[in-house]
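Tutorial handout. Part one gives the primary structure; part two gives the three-dimensional structure as tokens.
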Amino acid sequence: MKTVIPSKKSTILNKESAKGSSSISNDGPSFGPLDCFVATACYGQDDSTVNSLRLWRDEIIKQGTEKSKLLFIRAYYSFIGKPGAWVLQKLPFLKPIARRGIKFFIRLNNIS
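Part two.
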């Protein structure tokens, strides 16, 4: 029996997950409810910080005018998000450092 291993193309452009799906279509990108990986690992799924970051992400992508922020979002979902969350789950003593980084990111981008 031949085993087929799916490719690891889990970029923001074409991503499916069991808990939601993400894709970019002609109408713009859409994200599942659990796609804020690092913040969710630090704060929990329903935290106000996580929700603020999700709203910021959705607004940036909806507007589509700030190319540097769009590039950051693509990089986050392509390379940083899931591995970062995994590290925080395995090494919880790093969560306070990650929280400080998230708070800095929020201040830097005027996210409320």
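Part three, for discussion. The CA atoms of residues 1 and 112 lie 54 Å apart. The mean pLDDT is 74.
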